Amino acid sequence: MKPPKILITGANGQIGNVLTIALREKYGKNQVLATDIQKLTHENEPYEFLDILNTQRLEEIIHEHKITQIYHLAALLSASGEYNPLKTWNINLNGLMSIMELAIKNKIDQVFFPSTIGVFGKTTPKVNTPQHTSIEPETVYGITKVTGELLANYYHKRYDLDIRSIRYPGIISYQSLPVGGTTDYAVEIYYHAKKYKKYECFLKADTMLPMMYMPDAVKATLNLMEADPRDVKVRTSYNLSAISFTPAQIAAEIKKHIPEFEITYKPDFRQAIAESWTGSIDDSSARADWGWSHDYDIARMTVEMLENVDVNMID
């Protein structure tokens, strides 16, 4: 089979940065076109500047590069999205609509879009949240992602669009600093522990949230996109889980390697967002349908993070 010609939107984001590299390693550098509204932090070429709301330019790029797959990662995240609801709606939802419409028009083979644990709300069961459950998010970010999930399911059933999605938990990585997310503390803490031996956390000590180390997130994404279409039985978005922990638990793990490390707590507006989310996820559908399994626990992840974080990336 011919390798896919892949377009990635939002390639400079936390996931996009690493996923672009992984896809180029798998399919070849020239098979993967990275796009973003900012210059990329990893090796750029092939690269195109793209505002996801510029539908005309998006279609031109699809034609020029003979795109057959799209990984649509461009979005505003939970915390930053609260500052500008209309902008968040436009980027997260109208951008997705453009992708789906152009995918149908141009006969794109596959589309991936990321959803999130941000779709959950206070009415969602907080322990082992099931695949099919109450979804009443309290952030505009979550609202756009729920709507996106429903539209993805609709476009699949109505137009037979092969669109696939994962509800990512908080993603932890050392390749880039996250911006605007409620789970960002779980990345920042490693940088501050290594550089300053202390960290002030914006969530309470006992705030349990689902998390995942980046290699597992990339593995899950590739596994889902490679799955036989007959095995992809959820066309809204799959629950995905690896590890759940609190700030206190991750601090305790870090102290095993940096005994002098100290953590303090100063909850801000992100605490309310975190409290509206779930604490652990039941991802049995992903495990049964396309063989998902995670590789990293908190101990193994902490070793790798402390080995690899570049403290010069923070002030």
Can you walk me through this structure?
The chain is α/β, with parallel strands linked by helices and 315 residues long. Helices cover 40% and strands 16% of the residues. The chain is built from 11 helices and 12 strands. It has helices at 14-27, 55-64, 78-81, 85-105, 140-159, 185-195, 214-226, 247-255, 270-275, 284-290, 298-308, and strands spanning 6-9, 32-36, 47-49, 69-72, 110-116, 163-168, 170-172, 198-201, 209-213, 238-239, 243-245, 262-265. The strands form 3 sheets. It has a 7-stranded parallel beta sheet with strand order 3-2-1-4-5-6-10, sandwiched between helices. Helix 4 (85-105) runs parallel beside helix 5 (140-159) and helix 6 (185-195) packs parallel to helix 8. The radius of gyration is 19 Å and the shape is globular. The model has no long low-confidence stretch (mean pLDDT 94).
